[in-house]
């Protein structure tokens, strides 16, 4: 498929977005709306950068992991000191990582948030290595990132199994990455919001209020984050928390990254069998605790709604949040997913709730028939490139190659038409949010040639890119 305009090929256009967003050590999602380094954004960005600038792709991940906490967590934001402290809320003055996070091993030399995001990083590291193994081996890339990635997974598996059933819990909607999903409405309802005077919403300066979370929801996000901070970012039993949820996509990405860590271990001369086995246990726990066979969907599990470890017990049935979010389709990326579960998920993706293959340009973030569906409001209906990239990957993995090819073509068309929008209306493909968005451009590069460096933007000498001040586009 040819994607050429008067401004150059789609690959060249995508590479220019990443050049503009490059700071010298990492890539911002957006120069205006998100002027720092975000955790899972950097993983997706590295996956795209591997095709055009393998050294920068490695540096992207190394910069993020340099901000890892002593307990193993990888923070969801690494703040750039060159950006004004009030350019983004919640900023470093809110999180107070060096002081509030001291007991959890927050680094003293860099300011970060205290929560996490989905663990895509080991998968990204393995793909980056494969793009240029000679450079990776010469730099010792995998040998340097492997201990950090292993510690990151240990933190999640040991500190965040709040339900005791083998799955990781998120303690804030921002951790799952799909911040404003209706899947959080029921668990969030018990949270008293922070008063509006306690914070200033910088996001509304760069986006329409109708596209963003409501003030009520934002107040609840701030309350949860402040309580976690004031508790020293300590992870304890879910009974002490107002919000503790087992999420399908977060755990599926951890399982996929465990498989990737197994490959990395073997590349470094160690055995990877135990990690593959751990990934398969995570997959089995996903099916046991979050799969609803009648609904043909994975659902989030609200741990505060039940103390039972049996998801099919009298309390467990109430604990499943039966909202159809795109998170419930992401386990398609797992190779050990039972065949009947994968087939059912494909039926759900094609059905009237997600409309994949008919009726929508891209898979929405939330149920098209759901009461909270909104095609423009953040994660309550719009289609996102990273989730659709994961679905394309999962469809190919489970033999749905024709459907995957159609989705790939739609992603490339929409990226080109919207100037790499942050997210889009799933029906029309109309761009919403920021333009020139980092992971949209990066995943476009990957989709142009998922098997290797794509021809439209050949690898360059990474030393050509000068360091830029991220404060230039800050809010």
UniProtKB/TrEMBL annotation:
Residues 450-475 are annotated as: Disordered. Keywords: Glycosidase, Hydrolase. InterPro entries: 6-hairpin_glycosidase_sf, 6hp_glycosidase-like_sf, Glycoside_hydrolase_63, MGH1-like_GH. The keyword Hydrolase applies. The keyword Nucleotide-binding does not apply. Residues 34-440 form the Mannosylglycerate hydrolase MGH1-like glycoside hydrolase domain. SUPFAM superfamilies: Six-hairpin glycosidases. Belongs to the glycosyl hydrolase 63 family. This is Mannosylglycerate hydrolase MGH1-like glycoside hydrolase domain-containing protein. It comes from Streptomyces beihaiensis.
């Amino acid at each position: 498929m040819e994607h050429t305009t008067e401004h150059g090929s789609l690959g060249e256009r995508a590479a220019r977005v990443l050049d503009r967003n490059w700071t010298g050590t990492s890539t911002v999602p957006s120069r205006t709306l998100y002027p720092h380094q975000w955790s899972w954004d950097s993983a997706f960005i590295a996956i795209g950068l591997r095709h055009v600038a393998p050294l920068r792709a490695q540096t992207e991940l190394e910069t993020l992991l340099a901000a890892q906490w002593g307990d193993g967590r990888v923070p969801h934001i690494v703040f750039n000191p060159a950006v004004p402290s009030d350019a983004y809320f919640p900023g470093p003055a809110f999180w107070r990582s060096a002081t509030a996070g001291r007991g959890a091993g927050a680094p003293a030399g860099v300011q970060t948030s205290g929560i996490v995001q989905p663990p895509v990083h080991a998968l990204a590291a393995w793909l980056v290595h494969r793009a240029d193994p000679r450079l990776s081996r010469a730099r010792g890339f995998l040998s340097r990132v492997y201990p950090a990635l292993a510690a990151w997974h240990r933190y999640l598996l040991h500190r965040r199994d709040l339900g005791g059933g083998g799955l990781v819990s998120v303690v804030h909607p921002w951790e799952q990455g799909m911040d404003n999903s209706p899947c959080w409405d029921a668990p969030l309802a018990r949270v008293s919001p922070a008063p509006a005077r306690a914070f200033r919403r910088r996001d509304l300066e760069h986006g329409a209020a109708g596209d963003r979370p409501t003030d009520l929801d934002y107040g609840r996000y701030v309350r949860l984050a402040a309580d976690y901070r004031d508790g020293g970012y300590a992870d304890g039993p879910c009974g002490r928390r107002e919000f503790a949820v087992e999420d399908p996509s977060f755990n599926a990405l951890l399982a996929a990254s465990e498989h990737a860590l197994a490959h990395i271990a073997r590349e470094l001369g160690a055995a990877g069998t135990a990690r593959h086995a751990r990934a398969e246990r995570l997959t089995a726990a996903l099916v046991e605790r979050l799969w609803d066979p009648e609904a043909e969907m994975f659902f989030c599990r609200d741990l505060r709604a039940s103390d039972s470890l049996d998801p099919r017990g009298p309390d467990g049935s109430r604990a499943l949040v039966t909202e159809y979010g795109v998170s419930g389709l992401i386990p398609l990326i797992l190779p050990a997913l039972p065949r009947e579960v994968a087939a059912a998920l494909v039926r759900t993706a094609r059905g009237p709730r997600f409309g994949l293959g008919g009726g929508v340009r891209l898979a929405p973030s939330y149920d098209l028939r759901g009461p909270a569906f909104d095609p423009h409001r953040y994660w309550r209906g719009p289609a996102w490139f990273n989730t659709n990239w994961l679905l394309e990957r999962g469809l190919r993995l489970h033999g749905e190659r024709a459907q995957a090819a159609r989705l790939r073509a739609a992603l490339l068309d929409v990226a080109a038409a919207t100037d790499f929008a942050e997210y889009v209306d799933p029906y029309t493909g109309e761009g919403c949010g920021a333009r020139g968005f980092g992971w949209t451009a990066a995943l476009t590069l990957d989709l142009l040639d998922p098997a290797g460096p794509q021809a439209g933007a050949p690898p360059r000498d990474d030393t050509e890119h000068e360091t830029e001040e991220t404060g230039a586009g800050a809010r």
